[in-house]
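step=predict obj=Molybdopterin-binding protein n=69
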Amino acid sequence: MKISARNTVEGTVTEVTTGATTAHVRIDIGGGNVITASITNEAVAELGLRVGAKAYAVVKASDVMVAVD
């Protein structure tokens, strides 16, 4: 796989919850950390995502916000 994004983290899919058009995919990246992505149901099918599968969380953001209480 080649990709321009530099923020990629390998992990294991722990949950795939599909909705009407989109799905939430939870990826355990170790150390008690989980990344959740919202992608289309079509992408889930095309990628063959299932619990236990290895996958990469690819983070590409133009903005990062910080908040405090």
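step=describe
Residues 41-47 form the longest helix (7 residues).
step=end
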